[in-house]
Amino acid sequence: MENTNYHKAASAADAASLLSGAEDGQLIAGGQTLLPTMKARLAAPSDLVDISGVADMRGVTVSGSSVTIGAMTTHAEVAGDASLRAACPAICDLAGKIGDPAVRHRGTIGGSVANNDPAADYPAAMLALGATIKTNAREIAADDFFTGMFDTALDEGEIILSVSFEAPAKGAYAKFPNPASRYAMCGVFVAQGAGGVRVAVTGAGNDGVFRASDMEAALGSNFAPDALDGTSVSADDMLSDLHGDGAYRANLVKVMAKRAVAAIA
What we know:
32% of the residues lie in helices and 25% in strands. By secondary structure, it is an alpha+beta fold. It has a five-stranded antiparallel beta sheet. A four-stranded antiparallel beta sheet has the order 11-12-13-14, with helices on both faces. The N and C termini lie far apart (54 Å). It folds into three domains: 5-49, Uridine Diphospho-n-acetylenolpyruvylglucosamine Reductase, domain 2 (2-Layer Sandwich), CATH 3.30.43; 59-166, Uridine Diphospho-n-acetylenolpyruvylglucosamine Reductase, domain 3 (2-Layer Sandwich); 170-264, CO dehydrogenase flavoprotein, C-terminal domain (Enolase-like, domain 1, 2-Layer Sandwich).
C-alpha cells in the first residue's frame, strides 16, 4: 500500500498552497475518478488535497439567464436545483443521467470538467453552452479549455472554482449510454440561443469532446431533425473499441443529434 498524506482544504487558496508544497499532490473532490485510479495502482500521489468542503465553491446561482455553478456542486445538486431547471432544464436532465445515485451524490461538475474523460457528459454541455470556466488564476472559454482526451488548458496547480454560461433559449441532451457504466458511448448536446446553434459531441470522438460544425450550420438554416440528413460524420474521427467501432459511433452521433433536436422542437 502506498503512503499518502491527506489534507482538508479550508479554501481554494489553502488548497493551492497545499498543492504547491507537496511533492506530487492531487486535488480530490468527489473522488469518482481518482480513487479507482489509485486502487488500481495507476496513481500514487504523495498528497491528497480535499476541496469537497470548500463552501464557496458549491451551489447554483441563477440571475435572469446568467447561470453560475460552483465546481464542488454534485451531479445530484445540479439535477435537482429548481432555479437551474427553470433556466436550463437540459443541463439538469444531463446531470440526472450520470452514473447511478451513489455517483451522482459524490461526483462534482468541477471534477468532471477538469478530468475531461472522453465519455463524460459535462464537457459536451460546457462546449454547447459556450461556458466559461473560472479558476483561481483566470477565466477560460470552453472552446479553449478542452484540448484533447483527458487533457485541458489547466496549468499545474490551477483549480476550477466555477463554471458559468448564458442559458440558451432552447437546449437538449441526447445520450446513448453504455448499459454497464452509464458513460456516454455518444452524447450530443444541442443549444439554440442568441448566438446561433451550437452542437457538442461527447463519447464518440477519438480526441475527446468536439463541436459538430457541419451540424451547427445545417441547423442554423433549418432547425429540424431532417436538416441533419445531409451532414456526414467521418468514422475515421471516431473512437473504436470493444463497445462499438468508428462506423457505429459515427451513426450514433447523427441519431443522438436528431433526438436532441426533436426534443427541442
